[in-house]
Design goal:
Length: about 220
Amino acid sequence: MRNDLKPLWLGIVLLLIVLTINGYVTFLSFQRVNRNNALVEHSQQVLLETERLKSLLVDAETGQRGYLYTGDPHYLEPYDRASREVDGQLDRVAALTADIALQRTQVQQLRDLSHAQLKQLADTIAMARAGQPEEAKARVLSNGKNVMDDIRASIAEIEGVEAHLRANRVAEMKASTRSATLAFVIATSIAAAALLVFGGLLTREMRKSDAAAAAVLEQKEWLDT
């Protein structure tokens, strides 16, 4: 390697190193943003699925009430649908909250309460079908509200834990976004500075090369003369 080209090659190597480091730092920063964003979306999904579960159980209760007080089997459609879908919905909630020990316990309690509620609804519906609608209504009035209140309280506890997690995750996402933006700005500034330095070195070497070529041409013309 010619000695006069060493600064140019050194500049190229340094520029490549700077660009590689900057790219890696920026990649890590935005990867952290993506992770935090995924966690926020996870919390939102937990809240959505618990609300769906609550809606199913409320629909089941509404269908049971409608049937008991009208005797019309069409009112049982939301109850029948909820009976089919509650376990699957519980499984979705359990899968989403499996990483938090407290929520695992809460979801198991919610599962037990949901099964107790569905059994209670099924028992009163069976009584009405057997020709005992007044007895079924009396059972509903005596203890029909307690289990559903416990279910609402259990869902509220799960959602409370998840809402707290979501608030922390949103704060972390905002902080990581700011950090990623700052890292990108710094990386871009360093890369721009490195390019300017490299451009300066390249310009200097080109001037040297042009000067050397001019000197050779001048010497050739002198010799020709």
